[in-house]
Structures are given as C-alpha cells and as structure tokens.
Amino acid sequence: MNRISLRENLQNYRTPYEEEADFTSEFLELTFDDLAFKRERLEGHFTASAWIVNKRRTHSLLTLHGKLNRWLQLGGHADGNENLLEVAMTEAREESGLTSLRLVDRRIFDIDKHIIPQRGDVPEHFHFDVRYLIEAELDEPLIISKESNDLAWINFDSIEDMIGFNPSIVRMLEKTNKSEILI
After folding, report:
1. What is the pLDDT of residues 80-135, one digit of tens each?
2. For residue 60, what pLDDT is reported?
3. Domain 3-179 CATH superfamily
4. Closest of 133, 130, 172, 123 to residue 31, by C-alpha
5. HEC-encoded secondary structure of 148-183
6. Burial of 109 by CB count in 10 Å (0-12 exposed, 13-18 middle, 19+ buried)?
7. Given the DSSP bridges, would you call strands 44-53 and 74-77 parallel, antiparallel or unpaired?
8. Fewest CB within 10 A of the end CB: N or C in the chain?
9. How many CB atoms lie under 10 A from the CB of residue 123?
10. Which helix (H) or strand (E) holds 91?
11. 124: Cα separation from own chain's centroid
C-alpha cells in the first residue's frame, strides 16, 4: 500500500460526518505532494492511527499522550513511509506492546485534520491523520512506551467523560457503535 492506493482509498472513502467530508479533498490533494509523508512539510503532513477495540466492542485502548497530555488513540508520524496502514500497525505495537493486534478492515476507518501546537522550534502545523480499525485482546498485558504517560482500556460508556469533548474520538466511538462490523 503506497500513496497511489491511499489516493484510491481516499477517493472511495464515504462518510456521513460533515466534518470529515469537508476535508477529504485536502487529504486527496496532499497525496500528490512529495513531502506529504515527512515531518519536514511544516504546514502539515500525514500521520496514521489505530482505533483499537476489543472483539466485543465494549472498550477502546487509549494513551495519555506524553507531549499533549490528552487521552488519544495510538498512532504517529509516517516519517517517509507511504504505507499508512503499516504505520498505524507499527505505532500500535510500539506504543502498547500488544501482540494480538488484528486489522479489522484494510479500508480507512476515519480521517481527521487537526492542529498541533508549536513546540520548540517546530511551528504550529496540521496532522492529516488516517485511521484504521484494529482489534486486540482485552486481557493481554500492556507496555507503556516512552511516548505515553499512561495507557488504558476504556469502557465505551466512559470514554466521553474521560477525554472531555474531542469530536474525532467521539466520531470514531459512534462509528464503532453503529457499525458492529466483522465481529
């Protein structure tokens, strides 16, 4: 999977969520930029995330992000890798220690464009985050990486209370509750 297949997946991506539909064209346009998969593109670049859920679809694995100090899904920078599915799986393994990770669907689960605040000499910029739905075993031990302050399986009923209002996480939660796909 490279930028051409990413472009095809984005062209076929459909969402009932207006906020996603509004920036789908920006994601497509970005696939034509040679720097789109590198942090050096300071105005914004691709990242990839894993929305990790248990098989029964009752919990999601979230990390208390070390730099942002917010509960988020696991993921990170592409760092030149055009295979964002591979990036999402690698980040999920590295940030959780889980070995039971299983891709639910090769299609894109969610996309989100969000601002990252300035940090040191890195200016404020956008992350164009491509997300994939991944399952894991709820009872497998977790290993907190150096990028996290904490890591926890959060019951779907508690996610909104724990994270505060984060529309992209709420959207992924709603999609998971609606879809009940491939259980």
Report:
1. 999 999 999 999 999 999 999 999 999 999 999 999 989 899 899 999 999 999 99
2. 97
3. Nucleoside Triphosphate Pyrophosphohydrolase (3.90.79.10)
4. 130
5. EEEEEEEEHHHHHHHHCCCHHHHHHHHHHHHHCCCC
6. buried
7. antiparallel
8. C
9. 11
10. helix 84-96
11. 19
